[in-house]
Design a protein that fits this description.
The chain is α/β, with parallel strands linked by helices. The chain is about 45% helix and about 15% strand. Strands 3-2-1-4-5-6-7 form a seven-stranded parallel sheet, sandwiched between helices. Strands 10-9-8-11-12-13 form a six-stranded parallel sheet, with helices on both faces.
Length: about 400
């Protein structure tokens, strides 16, 4: 199958392109990264079309936007520019399927004269209207502005949803959000992300050390990785740390968003903030922790949960991140409604008091996990394409 993957950046598209190529498909990756970047992840340079100028201008406008406090500076110009560039390439080349990230897909989707048999878009989060409502609610609760989709982007993505043959979702939570907004389920394809189990997997020595810490009564270390922000549940995270009153060590590894700086200052002494590190160094943090906490309000697919899971960590997470796709309530994880730090505190308190119970959950969580392989992700996408074409009596 001849597939064009269109992404203004990197995201997980480079991994998907590599696996589709290795499965025998003819893939062209259209990105604004230089060709050597995809090559580092196994995508041959000859399979890449790069709009480097777009990438440079995007960075420059991004810096300018931060300097003047205007995060959406140049949004329409940049998205339409990349969309037109990609559409022109696809017009000149025979392509069976387009897999395009939302926000830059409209120009491609509007051209019905091309050779595409399947036009799909991938949304990294929940339905954009569903997402915006959650963020607006959090703005009111926190009394602070949150970086959320602009009205222009909301309208553009809704048009893209209507034009696409298939909408690719990264979790059941995200898929359900589209169904909730009225998108027929037969147009939705579930396509979760992969995780490198070999990198994050815990050795028997790591698991034994964790069990020794738990049953030995040492203060539990609760880890969170990613971005500390209002969207990721920073309000609830701080409330939870305050409820536990220093009984546990809360560690956050990653960036702190501007909208949550005030919460970081409030939580100093209750949460140990560590700067973001390269992915290659993250396994050490997972291996030294006893529990993993994720208070997010909205995530299409939380890759950090998959990393924590293959690291053998018991997980506390919300419903709005795909946790239920690969974790089991009461077995290797506990899953809560969003904005319920009180329930999370009760569970952490039980884990602290009943160490034998926590040790049992940790033992279950520590059982070998293969994780979702990037190859499986590519196969799932192809299955979605084949199912769509078989219903439409289309053959490649």
């Amino acid at each position: 199958m001849k597939i064009a993957i269109v992404v203004h950046g990197r995201f997980h598209a480079f991994d998907l392109a590599r696996e589709l190529i290795q499965l025998g498909n003819k893939v062209t990756l259209l990105t604004n990264y230089p060709k050597y970047w995809p090559a580092r992840l196994g995508v041959p340079a000859e399979n890449v079309q790069s709009n480097v100028a777009h990438g440079i201008v995007t960075r420059l406008i991004g810096y300018a936007g931060k300097a003047i406090g205007h995060e959406k500076l140049g949004e329409q110009f940049l998205h339409e520019w990349f969309g037109r560039w990609a559409a022109e390439f696809i017009d000149r080349n025979q392509v069976d399927a387009t897999h395009c990230f939302t926000g830059i897909a409209e120009e491609i989707l509007r051209n019905k004269q091309g050779t595409q048999k399947v036009r799909s878009v991938v949304r990294g989060s929940s339905h954009i209207q569903y997402q915006k409502r959650i963020l607006e609610e959090e703005e009111r609760r926190a009394g602070r502005a949150i970086d959320k989709p602009s009205l222009w982007m909301v309208n553009r993505e809704i048009r893209e949803y209507g034009l696409a043959d298939l909408i690719v979702c990264l979790s059941r939570f995200a898929k359900d959000s589209f169904a909730h907004e009225g998108i027929p389920r037969d147009r939705l394809v579930l396509n979760p992300l992969g995780v490198q189990g070999s990198r994050f997997g815990a050795t028997p020595e790591v698991l034994a050390a964790r069990r020794e810490r738990i049953v030995g009564g040492k203060r539990l270390r609760v880890l969170t990785t990613g971005t500390f922000s209002l969207r990721k549940g920073a309000v609830d995270y701080v409330a939870l740390a305050e409820r536990m009153a220093g009984r546990m060590e809360f560690v956050f590894r990653g960036d702190v968003a501007p909208d949550a700086k005030f919460l970081q200052r409030r939580a100093m002494g209750k949460i140990h903030f560590l700067p973001r590190v390269d992915q290659m160094k993250l396994p050490h943090d997972y291996h030294m922790a006893d529990l993993f906490l994720f208070c997010t309000l909205e995530d299409g697919y939380a890759a950090v949960l998959a990393q924590a899971s293959v690291s053998g960590l018991p997980v506390l997470a919300t419903t709005n991140c795909g946790a239920r796709d690969f974790l089991t309530e009461g077995k290797d994880a506990w899953i809560f409604p969003i904005r319920r730090p009180d329930l999370m505190a009760e569970r952490l308190n039980e884990c602290d008091i009943n160490r034998s119970y926590l040790a049992e959950v940790a033992q279950e969580a520590g059982k070998p996990k293969k994780g979702i392989k990037w190859r499986d992700m590519a196969k799932l996408l192809l299955e979605g394409y084949e199912s769509f074409m078989s219903k439409g009596k289309k053959k490649l």
